[in-house]
Amino acid sequence: MSARKIIIDTDPGQDDAVAILLALASPEDIDVLGITAVAGNVPLPLTQKNTLIVCELAGKTDVKVFSGCDRPLGRDLVTAEHVHGKTGLDGPDLPDPVMPLQDQHAVDFIIETLRTHDAGTVTLCPLGPLTNIAMAFEKAPDIVEKVQEIVLMGGAYFEVGNITPAAEFNIYVDPQAAHIVFRAGAPITVMPLDVTHKALVTKFRNDAFRELGTPVGKAVAQMTDFFERFDKEKYGSAGAPLHDPCVTAYLINPDLFSGRHINVEIETQSELTMGMTVADWWGVTQRPPNATFMGDIDADGFFSLLTERLARL
After folding, report:
1. Dihedral angle over CA of 264, 269, 274, 280, nearest 10
2. Inter-axis angle of helices 215-235 and 14-24, to 10 degrees?
């Protein structure tokens, strides 16, 4: 099997950073065609900077990084410095990046890449709000049928919300964009909070990162040391959930995950439940399935894969 061609769309974020590192450490499985930044966890100037920082940390300065949308389609930007710190990558002390951003806008890069590759050969991997993806689909509807798969982190069903009582952060930030993407017709695989809250960085697992003894291992341990304080206090959990690396791990070993092919709709009208992923887990509607919604993860297998791959960098 040849490496899977992907575009990572991201708003780093410590867990985004780990997801990117896992992809860049796995060239036999994943061919990163480019990384596109979007406003989300922190504003766009920081997410694009953080993406460059992560590529340099991995020693992959040839990766093409593009700057995208700086605000949601129809709402004011909501950010998450309370989780990720003022830079979005608080924890390790990482140098400012030297490698440049590409001149092309992220949305145009997504469109051009899908148009120039054979249909069914490029996977989109959104790790943040879906603004860039929705903008690309709206600007160039012809690319939707060329997408091999969209594998995204976002939403929740059993775990309800983490930014409001009903909504997960990525979907809540730009529910209109999520609505466009889920209605577009491309194959979608969703890593919701129901999965990611089972991928907890316990002390044992974080020690394994630190004991790699590499700049990457130490930085990842410092990142999770920083942002776990929020989740441990909020949920009373044993550690922080590594949300976004679930996307990358799925591309490498889908057998780590299990779920159902169901209908998922995005709430865009009610301020009370804005951004809720209305997942028909029990099949109680007649709405056709439009997404594979994951429900469980082999957490030990996930962390074994993550540690083994990060050791390469």
Report:
1. -20
2. 140
> Residue 239 — very low, low, confident or very high, per pLDDT cuts 50/70/90?
confident
Residue 284's CB is within 10 A of a number of other CB atoms, namely 8
Please name the residue ranges forming H helices in 30-160: 44-57, 81-84, 106-116, 131-139
- 10, containing H or E segment: strand 4-10
CB 23 within 8 A of CB 30: yes
- 261 catalytic, yes or no? no
Q: Is the dihedral of CA 279, 283, 284, 288 positive or negative?
A: positive
| Residues forming beta bridges with residue 291, ordered by sequence position | 262
- Among the options 84, 179, 197, 243, which is catalytic? 243
What is the amino acid identity at position 266? I
> pTM of the predicted model, to two decimals?
0.97
pLDDT (tens digit, 9 = 90+) per residue, 121-151?
999 999 999 999 999 999 999 999 999 999 9
